Amino acid sequence: MNRGCCGPFARFDADFEPPGSDGGLELLSTVSEQRLPAEFLPAIREGLAQGLGGVSASVLLTDGYFHETDSWASAYRIGAEQAGRAALIGAGLLPPEEAEALRWVRWPDSPKPRRPKRAR
């Protein structure tokens, strides 16, 4: 998620569940094409696979947003990779300290992001 005025923008909400009977990564979406164009789904799948590092999961996209100019596949790939890592932290498969490196994701009980101190 970009909080500045320019640059890549990606935003989506995802629920992570244990995998189905087939195992592997399953990506499902309930988000309309107007809110999250299908062209970004391959980048989300790729980022999730990287972030989960081989851990099987079923991922349901429940909401999404895009910007006509600033949304790029690479932004969704980065966001999905961090979402996958956050899911592993939430499941206890990665140490909680790893959360400090996840700058662009939020989840229940996630640590608050540290803001850089301003020079006075």
From TrEMBL:
Transmembrane segments: none annotated. It holds the Pfam family EFG_IV. Residues 4-89 form the Translation elongation factor EFG/EF2 domain. The keyword GTP-binding applies. Keywords: GTP-binding, Nucleotide-binding. InterPro entries: Ribosomal_Su5_D2-typ_SF, Ribsml_uS5_D2-typ_fold_subgr, Transl_elong_EFG/EF2_IV. This is Translation elongation factor EFG/EF2 domain-containing protein. It comes from Streptomyces nigrescens.
